[in-house]
């Protein structure tokens, strides 16, 4: 055990991705993505469904980390029944693909995907309420790094994640791939530009409860206009409306945000995609 260890919370549910054109990733694909990060030594709390949990546990067992793994099975609708209904009804009543830049993207056609992305703070708060977490809590996407998109050697991932100096312990820490240029949210909804990413989110337990409250407000306002999107634009809404509660950290790529939780002596040894090395010389 290290001081101030980070508890990792993540989730994987079968929401029919394999049946969505251009997003055909079945369960085995995501489980293979998870293999890349399964050697991280932090406690992991993983939400999933009954028919997948043993495969996830087996992956952690390969690294002798089953004692640092908690798997919880819970139906998705149970996390926020009102939010679930709002999202389903909005997709049913309003076409989310009209005038969107990429109308065939999963967030334009799958209400369950948008609901799952919305639930990130709900998973974390559920774990907090069960008394399972430490005070430092990270949300980490189950498929983070897409099996080698940025970091390329999974055998190197056998260390503890620890918050580095860029992390503000008093705020909700989000990562930005592009600086906020003050476009309206309506324009961003249609253009589908990404500013904030939800692959990693870090906060103390009390701020996760606040973040959940912000997301509940966000979904209420979005659905009142007949629109729904994934977590990226909702994160931007939260950060704009409650600026004092958020620490925004600029990064270069989708997955280099993990550097903000890797000790420097380890980070400098990690192999990364050769197309991206120039930014880290």
The biggest beta sheet reads: 7 strands, mixed
Structural class: alpha/beta
Radius of gyration: 18 Å
Please write the CATH class name.
Alpha Beta
The helicity comes to 25-40%
What is the total number of structural domains?
1
CATH architectural category: Alpha-Beta Complex
Count the helices. How many?
Answer: 10
- The stretches of 5 or more residues where confidence is low (pLDDT under 50) are none
Enter the CATH topology name.
Spore Coat Polysaccharide Biosynthesis Protein SpsA, Chain A
The topology string of helices and strands comes to EHEHEHHHHEEHEHHEH
User: Distance N terminus to C terminus?
Assistant: 32 Å
Spatial strand arrangement across the major sheet: 3-2-1-4-6-5-7
The quaternary organization reads as single chain
By DSSP, the count of extended strands is 7
Protein name: Protein YibB
Pfam families: HtrL_YibB
Organism: Campylobacter jejuni
Structure, explained:
It is a single chain. This protein is an alpha/beta fold and 281 residues long. It has a single domain, classed as Spore Coat Polysaccharide Biosynthesis Protein SpsA, Chain A. Helix content is 35%, strand content 14%. The protein has helices spanning 27-37, 53-61, 81-93, 106-109, 111-118, 120-129, 185-191, 205-224, 231-241, 264-267; strands at 6-11, 44-48, 69-73, 136-140, 172-176, 196-204, 246-250. It has a 7-stranded mixed beta sheet with strand order 3-2-1-4-6-5-7, with helices on both faces. Strand 2, helix 2 and strand 3 (69-73) form a beta-alpha-beta unit. Helix 3 (81-93) runs parallel beside helix 8, helix 6 runs antiparallel to helix 8 (205-224) and helix 8 (205-224) packs across helix 9. The chain is globular. The protein starts with 5 loop residues before the first strand and ends in a 14-residue tail after the last helix.
């Amino acid at each position: 055990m290290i001081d101030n260890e980070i508890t990792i919370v993540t989730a994987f549910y079968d929401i029919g991705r394999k049946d969505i054109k251009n997003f055909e990733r079945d369960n085995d694909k995501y489980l293979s993505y998870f293999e890349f990060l399964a050697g991280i030594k932090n406690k992991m709390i993983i939400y999933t469904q009954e028919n997948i949990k043993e495969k996830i546990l087996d992956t952690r067992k390969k690294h002798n980390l089953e004692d640092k793994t908690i798997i919880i099975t819970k139906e998705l609708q149970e996390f926020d029944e009102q939010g679930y209904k709002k999202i389903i009804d909005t997709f049913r009543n309003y076409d989310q693909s009209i005038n969107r830049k990429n109308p065939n993207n999963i967030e334009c056609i799958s209400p369950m995907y948008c609901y799952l992305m919305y639930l990130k703070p709900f998973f974390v708060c559920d774990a907090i309420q069960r008394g399972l977490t430490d005070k430092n809590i990270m949300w980490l996407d189950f498929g983070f790094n897409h099996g080698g998109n940025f970091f390329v050697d999974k055998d190197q991932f056998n260390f503890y994640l620890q918050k580095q100096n860029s992390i503000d312990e008093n705020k909700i820490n989000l990562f930005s791939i592009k600086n906020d240029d003050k476009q309206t949210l309506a324009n961003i909804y249609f253009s589908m530009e990404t500013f904030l990413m939800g692959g990693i989110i870090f906060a103390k337990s009390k701020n996760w409860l606040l973040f959940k409250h912000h997301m509940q407000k966000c979904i209420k306002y979005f659905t009142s206009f007949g629109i729904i999107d994934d977590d990226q634009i909702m994160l931007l809404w939260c950060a704009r409306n409650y600026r004092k509660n958020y620490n925004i950290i600029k990064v270069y790529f989708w997955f280099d945000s993990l550097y903000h939780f890797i000790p420097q002596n380890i980070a400098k040894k990690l192999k990364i995609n050769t197309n991206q090395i120039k930014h880290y010389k």
